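Re: Re: ligand-bound prediction request (bumping)

Still looking for help on this. To restate: I need the protein modeled with 2-oxoglutaric acid bound, output as structure tokens. Inputs repeated here so nobody has to scroll up.
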Amino acid sequence: MVQQSKPTVQTVSASAPIEQILEILHRDGVIVLSDYATEEEIDALNAKAAPHFDKAAREFKPDDKFKGFRASNTTVFYDLIGAVPEDTSKLLQRKVWHQVMEEFLSPETWEWYGEKKEVRKGSYWLHTSIAYKVGPGAGNQVLHRDSNSSMVQRTGPESPPTVVSTFVAGVDVTAANGGTHVIPGSHLWPQDRAPKQEDCCTVEMKKGSLGIWLGNVFHGAGSNTCSPTNPNALRIIYGLFATSDNFRQGENTVLACKPEEYMKMTPEVLKVLGFYKGSSGTGAFGGKDPIKTWKGLEGYNGGQWIYEKK
Ligand SMILES: O=C(O)CCC(=O)C(=O)O
Ligand SMILES: [Fe+2]
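Reply:
Sorry for the wait, this slipped through. Here it is.
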């Protein structure tokens, strides 16, 4: 009997020809780009992120429906771009990151305008930016597809990704410290195939590398089996997720008024304006309803949030 070899994650340099990078991503749905960020850039980011991890570990309590999603012994903080703007924005300035998003999140659509066919090309924007610190004892995270946060039903290999997930390694990421488990090729699976841990391989990458997977690839954080005394026991990664820019309001209504005007509005109105986290978690700010976390609405008491699910 022919033994099927385990799939692996391909690593190429961030400066490899873009055709090669895209070919691997189309085939496997996952890739690691080495030398995406410099040692100095990562050291600076780690230093500035540290107090935000400490604050999140002390204070952040996830909303009920997301409690089971993160693995144990995992600290995350949301809105990395708000917490560490300068350093995070540098990571979003690499050409290769934009070339990948252009390829997978900028679909062309056409429609009739009268008797004329009009073609439009979409684009992409930042979906979420999240920092992760995973400590010894963390278990395997449930295997999932990030595209599901768009809540567009995937039907099979013909469904394009609606999200592309990228992770900058803040430390050397290894199988032992919980490198993400991924299933290369699962973006092409039929929808009725469920993921299993034995289908997975591990994303291992050096500090400063960028792990990329399409949102329709199954993956989940790996278990961290390091001893707490191991100096490389913590896994720190910075997630920069992008989505197609058609997932947005027609007008950017959260920018329409001054905070004092929003303070006078009822929760139902603030919800439709965008100060609200959807049931998939999208639209959150600081991991919660922006009505609770945005500084401009500090002290807001417009009444009960009638749509909140208990
Ligand atoms: O921690 C990881 O390796 C993966 C996290 C993840 O999959 C997610 O947040 O969607
Ligand atoms: Fe994920």
